[in-house]
Write a structure and sequence with these properties.
This protein is mainly α and 472 residues long. The protein has a 4-stranded parallel β-sheet with strand order 2-1-3-4, sandwiched between helices. 60% of the residues lie in helices and 5% in strands. It starts with a helix and ends with a helix. It folds into 3 domains: 152 residues, no CATH class; 77 residues; 119 residues, PrpR receptor domain-like (Rossmann fold, 3-Layer(aba) Sandwich). Helix 17 links the parallel strand 3 and strand 4.
Length: 472
């Protein structure tokens, strides 16, 4: 057996271990290692293989399309540490400005510096270049802008950490991810304007953001690439928007958890109803869940709820008491079990559109476009339709043709589900880019229920998907 691969692996491990050890307390070595990481990332981008799929390019804003989740790894970033370091850097920059402008060493300044240096002891990988680094402090304007940018980054990292604990694994709100993208991009621009190559906390926040957008299949089309930088001079406004949205984000998570709990309760009773009649306790539980749904202000025409109500009604079409309970949530439609009109007539075999669409979408990457802030049950949609991948794409401005064009151009998908009504110019831009890139798109006039998606996919592009399947 050739022992050279093992020898090379051992040597590489020894060399990298020595470099990491040498980087302790030496920022220039750490920066060199990060540059090496970026260079390796670019090299891997130009070559195939499994190793490329395991690399997260946190430094250059490239989009990660595949991750090997089977490989255990440490958390992508410690948001609490990012928040503390970024806040320290903002405070330290302001102190450095004040010390220079005062031209002296007052007792107050000395106390502030002592506090900063004491705090620094608990902040690993935080280099105090603005206090005693080799390079002179840049001009006041860029330094103040960088301090504001760090404030915004610190606050959004703190908020994301709080919401991550509260949500227990739920996907972050898309507008929070947009705020994070703007904050990390603003810091990158600000520190480069100071003559620095980058910032570790910006990289960490970018890595966390990239992991979340990939894990939860949410597409963020702004400030995630070097050619689409944020404006750090707007950092104070960004901080204001972050603070204004904090309470709303928390309320949304609470509402989503409550919605999920109620839907799971109804799924349980729906499953039980397939096996026979419902007990009085089941009816009481269903009634209680629906009353709570209404009291919390959730939409009566929530697609997932309507599907469950229709299934319950269809399983017990003769149960008048149950139908009376479900009627407000059926959108005025007759229960599925009695739609044929003539109970005793022989039923024709129904076309299983979901099964047909599953077969067509098995090897297709799909992007679901929806109005930002709207609740769409993409997990259920993915479960029923089983595409190769399902990416969530929130849209904020339905009339912005340039934004739609940029969004579509950056998607790694073969089929777009359009669950919103775009304004004419934006819709024209969508069709134009889809034609250029040979992308398919499907309009969803009746929303994102699995039945509707399956129906529209088969009606609008089923022939094309079958043709492509045969040709391949």
């Amino acid at each position: 057996m050739d022992s050279r691969p093992q020898s090379i692996q051992s040597s590489a491990k020894t060399l990298l271990g020595a470099l990491v050890e040498a980087s302790q307390g030496r920022p220039e070595v750490r920066e060199a290692l990060r540059s090496l990481h970026t260079w390796l990332g670019h090299q891997l981008d130009s070559s195939p293989g499994l190793l490329r799929e395991k690399v997260v390019h946190a430094a250059d804003g490239r989009r990660v399309t595949t991750l090997d989740h089977s490989i255990p790894s440490e958390p992508v970033a410690d948001l609490e540490m990012v928040q503390r370091r970024a806040q320290w850097k903002g405070d330290a920059l302001r102190f450095a400005l004040e010390r220079r402008s005062s031209g002296g060493e007052s007792a107050e300044l000395k106390a502030t510096e002592e506090r900063l240096r004491t705090a620094l002891g608990s902040l690993p990988e935080c280099y105090p270049w603005m206090l005693d680094g080799p390079m002179p402090l840049p001009a006041d304007g860029p330094v103040g802008i960088a301090a504001d940018a760090y404030d915004a980054l610190a606050r959004v990292a703190e908020l994301a950490h709080e919401l991550e604990i509260q949500s227990a694994g739920l996907a972050p709100a898309s507008d929070l991810l947009y705020l994070m993208a703007e904050a990390q991009s603003g810091v990158l621009v600000a520190v480069r304007n100071l003559g620095l190559r980058g910032d570790s906390d910006q990289r960490d926040l970018f890595a966390w953001l990239k992991d979340q957008t990939t894990r939860h299949r949410v597409y963020v089309d702004r400030h995630m690439r070097l050619d689409n930088p944020a404006d750090p001079t707007k950092a104070k406004d960004l901080l204001k928007r972050i603070n204004e949205g904090s309470e709303e984000f928390s309320k949304r998570i609470t509402a989503r958890k409550e919605r999920g709990t109620l839907l799971n309760k109804l799924r349980y009773h729906t499953s039980r109803s397939q096996d026979g009649g419902l007990l009085d306790a089941d009816r009481e539980s269903i009634t209680s869940a629906l009353e709570q749904w209404s009291s919390l202000g959730f939409a009566t025409r929530d697609r997932t709820l309507v599907e469950l109500a229709q299934e319950l009604a269809g399983n017990h079409a003769d149960d008048k008491e149950l139908l009376a309970i479900l009627n407000p949530f059926l959108e005025g439609q007759a229960p599925k079990a009695v739609k044929s009109g003539v109970p005793d007539s022989p039923a024709l075999p129904e076309r299983d559109m979901q099964a047909e669409s599953r077969d067509l979408l098995a090897d297709v990457s799909v992007a679901g476009v929806y109005q930002e802030g709207e609740e769409v049950d993409f997990d259920a949609l993915e479960k029923f339709l089983c595409p190769k991948a399902l990416i969530q794409v929130p849209v904020k401005d339905l009339s912005d043709a340039d934004a739609i064009r940029t969004m579509v151009s950056g998607l790694d998908a073969e089929l777009i589900l359009l669950g919103v009504r775009l304004e004419p110019d934006a819709y024209s831009a969508l069709k134009e880019v889809c034609t250029e890139r040979e992308l398919l798109f499907v309009r969803l006039p009746d929303g994102y229920s699995s039945d509707q998606v399956a129906k529209q996919v088969l009606r609008q592009v089923g022939w094309r998907l079958r043709k492509d399947s045969v040709e391949s």
